[in-house]
């Protein structure tokens, strides 16, 4: 499946690698040891933030894993206009995990998948993961917890 948004260059190809319509979002405190993340200390992110409720419902979003491929020049353009375009360009591939509002599709948070540490499984559940999300061009970073409703979806995501 491929699609193209209005903000992508004309030569960008976008593929959806994974889609889950319902994931729950949690605030994750900083790691206190090297043992990894556990869900016992996570608190649900709510909209609007209400910490007074004893058991607030977490925000539920759609999760998409998206791969984008854009052709980028290998070298600076030369005066030889008759060179083969395919030799001058190579694909630039990026993968991102997008958390989006279910009703509007607006971006809630993005996790650029740049290394395996971008997505970490938790030690006490197979349905939860910690995502390192970024915003504002990479200047703002945070760890959010993501919980799947179905174990099969979580297993597919973990692969």
Commentary on this structure:
By secondary structure, the chain is mainly beta. The protein is 8% helix and 46% strand. The chain is built from 2 helices and 9 strands. It has helices at residues 85-88, 151-158; strands at residues 2-3, 13-27, 43-44, 59-73, 89-101, 107-112, 119-121, 128-135, 140-148. Strands 1, 2, 3, 4, 5, 6, 7, 8 and 9 form a 9-stranded antiparallel beta sheet that branches. A hairpin with a 6-residue loop joins strand 7 and strand 8 (128-135). It is globular. Mean pLDDT is 82; it is low at 1-6.
Spell out the key features of this protein:
mainly beta; 9-stranded antiparallel β-sheet; 9 strands; single chain; disordered N terminus; 159 residues
Global structural class? mainly beta
**pLDDT average, as an integer?**
82
**Helical content band:** under 10%
- Give the CA-CA distance, first to last residue: 19 Å
Report the sheet-strand fraction.
over 45%
